[in-house]
Structures are given as structure tokens and as C-alpha cells.
Design a protein that fits this description.
This protein is of the alpha+beta class. It has one domain. The protein is built from two helices and three strands; from the N terminus they run αβββα. Strands 1-2-3 form a three-stranded antiparallel beta sheet. Helix 1 packs antiparallel against helix 2. The radius of gyration is 12 Å and the shape is globular. The chain binds zinc ion (ZN).
């Protein structure tokens, strides 16, 4: 199922700790209120590419899609 796979992907890359999205690769985090800003990964982060700059946005899209 497509949604489950999207969530699994998101979950492999991010976790939510105390209301902040945390990159599982570099452990940098971003608060929900900063969701419109680009995520600041560490210089050494392996997933620091264009697709991984907006964790909250990605999650929002997945959940919107899941709701139908
Ligand atoms: Zn990172």
C-alpha cells in the first residue's frame, strides 16, 4: 500500500521528539513552527539533499493523502 510505504520512508528518515522533527542521520531538529524554513542538516549528514529540507511538509502531504 502506497501510503504505508510513504510513512515508512518518512519514519526511516525522521522521528518526532518533543514536538520537533529530528533527522535520524545527523540528529539535527526543527520545531513545527519553523516548518516553512529549510531544515538545517549537519554538514556531514548523509541525507542532506533537496528532498529532505521540509520534513513537516512531507508528513503533511502524506497525511493529507491518507485522509483522501
Ligand atoms: Zn540530517
Amino acid at each position: 500500500m502506497e501510503i504505508e510505504r510513504s510513512i515508512e520512508k518518512w519514519n526511516a528518515r525522521w522521528m518526532i521528539v518533543s514536538g520537533r522533527a529530528v533527522c535520524t542521520s545527523c540528529m539535527e531538529s526543527q520545531a513545527l513552527e519553523d516548518c516553512e524554513k529549510a531544515f538545517c542538516h549537519a554538514d556531514t549528514c548523509a541525507v542532506s539533499n533537496q528532498e529532505s529540507k521540509h520534513p513537516w511538509g512531507s508528513l503533511h502531504v502524506i497525511l493529507d493523502y491518507a485522509r483522501g
